[in-house]
Write a structure and sequence with these properties.
By secondary structure, the protein is an alpha+beta fold. The protein has a single domain, classed as 3-Layer(bba) Sandwich (FAD/NAD(P)-binding domain). It has ten helices and 19 strands. Strands 1, 2, 8, 9, 10, 11, 18 and 19 form an eight-stranded mixed sheet that branches. The protein is globular, with a radius of gyration of 20 Å. The two termini are 35 Å apart.
Length: 361
């Protein structure tokens, strides 16, 4: 019997496996997709996350990032990181670097999809394996989490962000063009944001985040390219920057963003990464928080104290959840939303302090 089966071999799943293997646990990862696995995301890794990756022995290639720039039709605000640099890194490059590190630690990755499991007081059984613990890191729409929720009921009310309506989604496309800044640019309109992240000397990623009104019916799901093009037109300054640039990746989408979860520790089954709950991509700290969760998980399992994980999860994830929820709430207020970028421009020290709070998540 192994110590841990990690379901999901994305960045957080692999980071969890690496942390646990370094803590002396025997680990196997179940991931049906071949590496590297792509995903729609902003691809900006904050400074604290760069340091966490380095501590795991993972140093992916990417484009150094030195801060955040907010832009709307008439305002512009910049905040520089104060503790090292971040990294713009393609999701596939990050995944490949983590997969290589897992392979160097002789962590098996089985090409199987886990949809069912059983657990008792001593172990968990899934995919023909017996393990002392199972960690579900199988993403935003986690199959394992759904199975657990059927047993424990729906999420409790009052979870941060639970009143945000309508739901938010994302689309991501890369363009073959030299970056024009060493900052992540966030372009704002009344209904959406566009994140521009340099990921190499000749490629930038553009991620659009927006709300869909469920009362309007069609989501244009049959034409995501048309949806992306139409939404990008709301950012004329960005569109001008990208004029003539060729797409450099497959268009990908994600959502809905908000995923409420009652708890993350269910006996010997635990949740990590997006599977453990999600508010929004607005503040870009997802990888950093996921890596912190992986470290917390490894400490709890190495001590054979899985029940401690819920408290540890709240300690490492709660500040980012609360900050993102507050910013998203402000963004959706008719009076506050249009004033966010002007506020950042008028009070640069406050903006810099908030950006660095996120950067150190």
């Amino acid at each position: 019997m192994i110590d841990l089966l990690v379901v999901g071999g994305g960045p957080v799943g692999l980071a969890t496996a690496i942390c646990c293997a370094r803590a002396g646990l025997s680990v196997t990862v179940a991931e049906p997709r071949s590496a590297p696995v792509d995903k729609a995301c902003g691809e900006g890794v904050m400074p604290a996350a760069v340091r966490r990756l380095a501590a795991l022995g993972v140093t992916p290639d990417g484009h150094p990032l030195h801060g955040i720039r907010y832009v709307d039709a008439t305002h512009r605000a910049e905040a520089r990181f104060t503790r090292g640099h971040g990294l713009g890194v393609r999701r596939t490059v990050l995944h490949a670097a983590l997969a290589a590190r897992a392979a160097a630690l002789d962590i098996p990755v089985l090409p199987v999809r886990v949809t069912q499991f059983t657990q008792d007081a001593g172990h968990v059984t899934a995919a023909g394996l017996e393990a002392r613990y199972l960690v579900a890191a199988d993403g935003l729409h986690s199959t394992i989490r759904r199975a657990l929720e059927r047993d424990c009921g729906p999420p409790a009310p009052g979870v941060p962000g639970s009143r945000e309506r309508p739901q938010r989604y994302g689309l991501r496309q890369h363009y073959r063009i030299a970056p024009w800044s060493d900052l992540v640019e966030v372009h704002w309109t009344p209904r959406a944001e566009a994140y521009v992240t340099p990921v190499s000397p000749d490629v930038v990623g553009v991620a659009l985040l927006f709300a869909r009104d469920p009362s309007r019916g069609s989501r244009r799901e049959d034409d995501p390219a048309g949806d992306f093009k139409a939404r990008l037109a709301a950012f004329p300054a960005l569109l001008g920057r990208l004029a003539g640039a060729a797409p450099a990746s497959e268009l990908r989408g994600a959502g809905p963003m908000l995923q409420r979860v009652r708890r993350r520790a269910h006996g010997r089954v635990l949740l990590a990464g997006d599977a453990s709950g999600y508010v929004d991509a607005l503040t870009g700290e997802g990888i950093g928080v996921g890596l912190a969760q992986a470290e917390a998980l490894a400490a709890c399992l190495a001590a054979d104290r899985p029940a401690d994980y819920e408290r540890a999860w709240r300690r490492v994830s709660g500040p980012a959840w609360r900050f993102t929820s507050a910013l998203l709430w402000s963004r959706n207020q008719s009076l506050l939303g249009p004033r966010l970028v002007p506020f950042a421009q008028r009070f640069p020290r406050v903006f810099t302090a908030l950006v660095n709070q996120v950067a150190e998540a």
